[in-house]
Amino acid sequence: MKILFLFFIFYFISKSFGNNIPAPKDFKCSKESLIYTYGSGDAYFSKWSFTDSNYDLPFDCLNDSRSVTCTAEMNGENAKMLHGSISTCVIDSNGALICESISLSKKYYPNPIIEGEFKPLTKGGQTSLKGYYLAFGISSFFTILPDTKVNFLGYMLDPSFDATNIIINYQGGCGLKTLQWPNGFNFTFNHSNPIINNASSDNRSLIVTGSNFCNNSNYVNIFIDSIQVDKLNIISIDHELFEVKYNQQYCKSIVLNIVSGDLDSNKFQFDYKPLPLKINSIPKSKGGSIIITGERLSSQINNSLVIVNIGQNECKQVISSKNEITCNLDSITNGSISNNLQVNISINGIVNDNNLLFSFDVPFISDFILPQGEVKLIGDCLGTLQSTQVYIDDILQSNLTISINDKQTTLSFTPLNQIKKSKLYLIVNGTKSNAVDIDSSFYVKSIPSSPSVIGQIVNYTLYNINPSNYNSLPTIILKDNSTIKGIDISNSVEYSTHSYSFQIPKGCGRNEITISIGNQTSRTEFYYEQPIIRSCSTNDNQLIHCLGNFTNYLNYYEDDQIKIIFLNSSKYNYLESNLLDFKFDSFSFQLNKQFTSNQIYLNVCNQLLPITDIEFTQTPQVTKINTIEPILNDSSKHENNQTNNESIGSIGEVVSEKDQIQKYCANLI
């Protein structure tokens, strides 16, 4: 009986108190009003009091026979005050006003209304969240699912706190995130779109700066020219910088974009600009071949437009490759500036932006070799017989007989005494060149000097061999790093000067080699034998026909290493291969309108043989043909005991006035 009594007591209390807790049947939230609907006779809220802002939000309630509808008018000003702890006043089911600790259930909180975009930076920072009913039940932080707390700035007890514009201290992230309010309302947002601001490159990677890249490659896809970069090639990524493995060897424009958290960036064009790093000097009075080395000096696009300007002077007949540009710069006879001229290269409109300067008449020794006991200096602006002085260890070599080629790029002499561990430099027209360390005490001579193109045994005599190397056998190292072992062929016991034979393989053109024995080395060169053109003739159809023995050169013709070179409007060109008929005992080609001068050559592995001496009438027509002996290289020059002089030139040069063709030919093959 006692238990039954207690049950009725508790039931009565709970029933009576439960009638004082409003339970809306429906509610609607907008920026203009809050509308709550209750059942007829049910308790309802008449006022909400926000203690932190000291603001009361009254409800105007309309009671009919079926329901009670309570409306609170809303605007931008009173919406600012709706934040912090909430106390309520309730009209109970008996019509009594109760302003006690009756809490507002979270499920009846108005859902937030988000205004504008909420797109924080991926790196985080202060971000504004604007709208209505944002701070219901919020004390000091929001929650990003699943359980990340995000604080906001400001103090709710501060009268200036604005609940319609809350500054969140966002910690950063990538991809889609979800804010959750205490009433269970979820708001999913993404971050600001990635923006690419700039890019730079080195030889191994592409470095891109901007914003909102994310710092997790799982959320990121990077594209170069619409091709996705393999994630394994992403070196590093952060919110404002990423680096990918990428190397571009050609001058070109690329288009970059990044997709971060399914948000696409802007399309950013980055130019891989030509990068000239080094340029030779040429004589101002002669002009000559300019050689520019560097990176990205050509394009993959066929028929690219490459323009080279040196100061105000255009460099003509441009030939470009990835790492080298050659062109011809005319002589300058006026008083224009000739030093520190800016080098500008444009490839399909993309121009270099580095500062490379050019000056005329700067003597420079880039290398030396020791062919046939001579010293051959290789460089730029090496002067003339009248203007050049050779110094060894600061002593003028006044008794040297030197030869300098017409381009002033090689200087050769036979030393009066062997040069041992000395410094050599030139003074040309009063300008001193760089100094090179030189030692000519160990050198070689060969017989024959020009081996056959089908290969041949060549005997090399080595001079001034050190005693410690007497028991060693010499080795020739070819340009491709292959080696040839020498065989001792001397009967003499004099080992300081000793001869060895080498089986030179088949080949063609010029070959620079290194001969070593023990710890001694000497760099030299040889030229394979050139074909002999016995005679040339023409017929009424203007077909030029030349006779000779070309059996050993047929393979090189098939490999496109034998061409016809001709001068056309101050530019050297080659005749299309299909217009040259090359046989074992003759070759022929048709004279046509392309030929506008009498400079026609047979190019054999970059070595030139003049074919004819042609005089032209108004239309191309052969009026005279002379048979011309093949041009002797310098090795043959030694065998024929020719005298060094400026017109003969130095090793490997053809005819001095045609020197500029050689570089062009080297780029045609």
From TrEMBL:
GO terms for cellular component: membrane. InterPro entries: Dictyostelium_Tiger (IPR052014), Ig-like_fold (IPR013783), Ig_E-set (IPR014756), IPT_dom (IPR002909), TgrO1-like_Ig (IPR057594). Residues 117-191, 446-525 form the TgrO1-like immunoglobulin-like domain. Residues 1-18 form the signal peptide. Residues 280-355 form the IPT/TIG domain. It holds the Pfam family TIG. Keywords: Glycoprotein, Membrane, Signal. This is IPT/TIG domain-containing protein. It is found in: Membrane. The keyword Membrane applies.
